[in-house]
Specification:
Blueprint: E1 3-5, E2 8-12, H1 13-20, H2 24-33, E3 39-40, E4 45-48, H3 49-57
Antiparallel strand pairs: 1-2, 2-4, 3-4
Helix pairs in contact: 1-2
Length: 71
């Protein structure tokens, strides 16, 4: 379930992994490497829709080709 705070959509690690068709561990790795921006809000790590779009449009990221964010 997408979390919306002040009209900004946030996705959990699991939801982001499903969108990008990778494992949750890969998403955590991308965050740790600084390739994908995520914030811990309470217990879960949340990734904004804008940060996912930025990640997808960065040429050096492995999932930037042929992957689009589903709306």
């Amino acid at each position: 379930m997408v979390t919306q705070i002040e009209n900004i959509k946030f996705y959990t690690v699991q939801e982001t992994a499903e969108l990008l068709r990778v494992t949750p561990q890969t998403i955590r790795s991308y965050i740790k490497q600084g390739k994908l921006k995520g914030k811990r809000i309470g217990r879960p790590i949340l990734i904004s829709e804008a940060n996912i779009q930025e990640f997808l449009t960065t040429p050096e990221n492995p999932t930037s080709i042929n992957t689009t964010l589903q709306k």
